[in-house]
Structures are given as C-alpha cells and as structure tokens.
Amino acid sequence: MLTIEKIIPFDLSLIKKITQEPSNLLLIDIETTGFSPKQSQIYLLGFICIQDQYLKLTQWLCEKKEDEYELLYRLSKLLHASHTILHYNGSSFDIPFIKKRLNMYGILSAIDAIKQIDLYLELKPLQPYLNLENLKLKTVEQAFGFHRRDKNSGRTLINIFSHYTKNPSIDLQELLLLHNEDDLLGLYHTLKANDKILFFKSAASESFLIEELLVDVEEKLLKIRVPHKANFEATIIIAPYTLEISLEEVCISIPINSDTLYYFFPNYKDYYYLPLEDMAIHRSIGQFVDKAHREKATKHNCYIKKRGTFIPLLKNYNITLNTYKYTVNDSMCYVEITEDLLMDHQLLSNLFSQILLSL
Question: Are residues 160 and 266 in the same domain?
C-alpha cells in the first residue's frame, strides 16, 4: 500500500472555528470501486489533520485490491474516541461504507464513539440563502474560492484504479491521488461556510442576542437595525421582509403600506353589519338600530375600517395590538405604525427575533 504525506500551506483559522480542540479534528474522504460496501471496496482513503501546527494531508492508496485490509487496519489504529471526523455527505456514504468494510474484516475500531460533523447536512437547511444551484461539493467549494485541478469523475476513477492495479504507473497514480486531494482541499475551503452556519443556527434557536436596536423610517420602509459582528455579507428575501447581513449589523427592512385595512371582530355571530356605514357593531348596541338598516354580520363583513400606515406581520406572530387585514381569509395581517409602536423596542425586538426564527 502506498502512503503519501504532505504539508498543506493553509492557515489553521478555519479549523479553529469548528472545534476548540483542532488537534483532534480529522477531515476524511474515501474513494471506492462502487456504491455497495458488500460488492465494492475502498481503494483510497485521505485525511487532513493538524500536526505540529501545520495541516498535514495523508493518503493511503491500495496498490492491489488485497491492500484494503491494511488500509482499514491503519484507520482503526488512527481513530480514537476523542477525535472529531469532518466530512461532506459522509453520514450517508463514507462512514456507513467504512463501518461495513470494517465489520466484514472483523476489525474493531472506535468509529461509533467518534463525534462527526457532516458539512453537507449543516448547509442543507441554508440552501435557499446560499444562492447555489445545488449542494454538490464541487459547487459549494467553488463558491468559497476553491478551484479544483482534477477533471475526473468518481466513475472514471474506478476504471483508472482497475488499470492501475494491472499496470501501475505514476500517471495513473497521480490521477487517483489528485481527485482525493482536491476533495479534501475543497472540504477544507467549505469550512468558510461555518460563519453562515453559526449565524443561522443562532437565529433559529432564539440565541441571537439583541442588546441594542435602532429604528429608522425611510420612504415606504421601516428598518430595524441590530449591531452584530459577522464575517460575511448577505441579502436574503423572507417575503415580505428583506434581511441584510453586513460586517457590522443585521438589518431587517419591512415594507410600509398606506391604505385602508379592516379589523375583523371575532365571533361574528355577536355582531350586526350596517351597510350604510360599512361597519359592524356589537349586538348589544346594534339592537337599537332600525332593522331596515342592519343585518346579521358574516365573517366577511364583521369589521371596522382603518385608514393609516401599516407594516405586515408574520402569520403566527403574537401581539397585543389590533391587527388588520385586506380580507378575512388573508394569511398576512398588519399592525398600524404609531409613535408608541416605534418607541416600543421590546415589541420590535420580538418582531426582529420572529423574522429570524422564520429562516
């Protein structure tokens, strides 16, 4: 079995953002002769670790099919429970494949006790906000600045490995090693997504701290700004809101509607509708209105009208203020902008948090 080791001239800052114990982190990728661990084998395993404050790339390449046992045995000796394995979609392929092959050889290992980070699963919920066509590693790594040299697909490499075992050559060897190396270096570059992952996890878990809040009313927009340090910039549409993340703050822009809206009373059976006034009143008062000028209210006309300026609210947003709609069946409701609302930082903070939670 061939062993290749080299130092990668990258800094350690990305890895240090992932774990407090970077020396225990392993970036792992395997190459196999097929998708089925029962019928196929691992012919190449590569991993990146930290050694003496440097990133070290190690690759174990089988020179013949029988070398797989040695590859897996070495892996079993490498792994210990304090390790953290980082991979890309390895939860559904690499790790189950490795486990199956270890079991087939009867090799014991600590792989079941090891913490894993699957960057694919971390990024999957964020796909709508990443502006990426798909989440294939080649697509993601390119978005984060890595351009691979390897041009071969995994399927092509299976044939290359088959030729390599029969007629070994440096050229074939380099093709096999390059693909695996680029997968690992691409995985490393994808760690740049960690700032976004942490931001969205914080937003979705109610742990996003709002210590200061600034409110601006611009033409047809209410802007809520919260100072926040971020290592990336992004603009995200969460209709009808716009979320702007900059290096210094997070800003949510809310459209302002100047219009006539309707407040719909609950329990419409307790109300009369007055057609001439185009409004509903409670039966306790409506009983004194001439019967010719009143009718039983329905859920569609059990309202009072309000002319003003409004902002839209999320469907499930809880608020003590009156909410207005265009029609009773509208999923979007609105609240009137008043001086009291603009001064109510608790209410606006709650609204800000609710919008982040909707990500």
Answer: no
